[in-house]
Amino acid sequence: MGNQKLYKGSLQTIILKLLAQNDKMYGYEITQKVKELTKGELKITEGALYPALHKLEAEGLLDVEVAKVGNRLRKYYKLTENGTKETANRLSEMQEFLNTMQQLVNPKFSLE
Amino acid sequence: MELTKEQIQKIDLFLEGIGIEYIDIRFEMVDHIATEIENNIEDINAFFKYNGFQTPFIKYMLSRKKEYFESYKKQKRKAFWFNIKRTLVAVFKESIKPINFIAILLFLFAINLLENFNLKYASEIVFVSFFLSFFYFTIRFNQFKKKFGAIKIIHAYASIFMFNYIVSFHFPGITPIFSEGSYSPFLLYKCFTALIINFLVFKCFLNEKTNIQKRLKNLA
């Protein structure tokens, strides 16, 4: 497993990107999807995930929907209209960041 | 295999037992743990089967107790500001609803007329209205809090009520509004603003109250 601290600043972008690809998701589903996509490299803890989801909700980027699933309640998150716009901005910022990092750590190659 | 109502209740009781008091945070944690158990444990009945201190469920939960509590503390801290922000947005939206906006303007107009006629009477009317409204809202609010205090957002309303009260009474105080020679348009409109804020917060609280009752019915 790589250095988790390096991923910390990207957690919100990761969540937004996943929600852009899936209509709505719940907390556990997000952690499992990230684990699956990164082949276990990145494991999101509850302590990091839920505050990040709530922050995005407070910023108006996510909408919530509470549904009864089996014998319990489940909170689903989905992107708002602003959330969809913000996802595009953050992904482009992330790409710029990756390009800059690439130039710094390995100037010979480029991601573009 | 899906967890039964009793098994869900065991998770909920465990979390409540370790100090995860607010149900609006807890229900999401319950779902997370329940899904994790459903996906990773093969024999769920054996996992929950009571076997003194050896119950695998208890061992599983105890091994993650610290992690759950840390996650809760973090969520609780952030939920406070999130709820305050959400409540203030709701108050603002309430204030720009045409019916409220017109009512506030009419009241302001009436107070302005009365102020020009007699500042003392205008000040006393606004102050008494503010004081009575504060007293009434606090009683209604506390009755609800006694029953539904385990819902975190309730505390955001309590904080805004108290903040409005402290600022209105002390910075600078509005009580001199009653002393001879201390009447001033500034104190009058400060008290008027506090009264309007009280009214709007209370209206939002009534809306939230219905939502909470509905949500709690689902959680029960």
Automatic annotation (TrEMBL), chain A:
Residues 15-88 form the Transcription regulator PadR N-terminal domain. Gene3D superfamilies: Winged helix-like DNA-binding domain superfamily/Winged helix DNA-binding domain. InterPro entries: Metal_resp_DNA-bind_regulator, Tscrpt_reg_PadR_N, WH-like_DNA-bd_sf, WH_DNA-bd_sf. Keywords: DNA-binding. Pfam families: PadR (PF03551). The keyword DNA-binding applies. GO terms for molecular function: DNA binding. It comes from the Bacteria. PANTHER family: PADR-FAMILY TRANSCRIPTIONAL REGULATOR, TRANSCRIPTIONAL REGULATOR RV3488. This is DNA-binding PadR family transcriptional regulator. It comes from Tenacibaculum lutimaris. The lineage of its organism: Bacteria, Pseudomonadati, Bacteroidota, Flavobacteriia, Flavobacteriales.
Automatic annotation (TrEMBL), chain B:
It comes from the Bacteria. Keywords: Membrane, Transmembrane, Transmembrane helix. The chain crosses the membrane at residues 95-113, 119-137, 149-167, 187-206. This is Uncharacterized protein. It comes from Tenacibaculum lutimaris.
